[in-house]
Amino acid sequence: MIRFALACSEGHEFEGWFHSNEAFDRQRAAGELACPVCGVTSVDKAIMAPAVARSGAADRPPPELVARFLAMARALRAHVEQNFENVGARFPEEARRIHLGEAEPRDIYGEATAEEVRELLDEGIEVRPLPWVPKLDG
Ligand SMILES: [Zn+2]
Predict the structure, then answer these.
(1) Where are the domains of the chain?
(2) What are the Cα distances from residue 11, in Å, to 46, 54, 62, 135?
(3) pLDDT, tens digit, 9 for 90 and up, residues 34-74
(4) Rounded to the nearest 5°, which phi and psi values hold at 47?
(5) What is the distance in A from the centroid of ligand 1 to the CA of 96?
(6) Does the chain have fewer CB atoms within 10 Å around its N or its C terminus?
(7) What pLDDT, in 10s, does the model give residues 94-117?
(8) Residue spans of alpha helices (H) in 1-138
(9) How far, in Å, from the CA of 83 to the mean position of ligand 1?
(10) Which residues face 86 on adjacent strands?
(11) Rounded distance, CA 8 to CA 18, Å?
């Protein structure tokens, strides 16, 4: 999996994970990439350039879109918490054991440092970051 910094034609920046550069090109050509802020499918890799600070709230995402995104992220997280086994800090070890066939194949989630995630990806183990959103219990 490769992470790309992306930007839409409206200037919103976000991130996407892709199996490969080719997968990114294919999805982009097929119009399958959409900006999570405004929904346009005119999306490309973000050009790494110095940021220009603009004043005013005009290019902030509308609150209802932010709320919708957070709701989706919460739903995804809830699904994972209900259906995946929480292995906590043993995540890198357990992901590796499953990958090597030393542990029962199953869906797991847990904690890993950026370094550990990179090592797992290097070993061909697919890991995905979960959107971390504040819990709604309170
Ligand atoms: Zn956008």
Answers:
(1) 2-45, 63-122
(2) 9, 12, 14, 29
(3) 999 999 999 998 865 454 555 655 567 777 877 888 888 88
(4) -80, 125
(5) 37
(6) C
(7) 999 999 999 998 989 888 888 888
(8) 21-29, 63-83, 91-99, 114-122
(9) 32
(10) 109
(11) 17
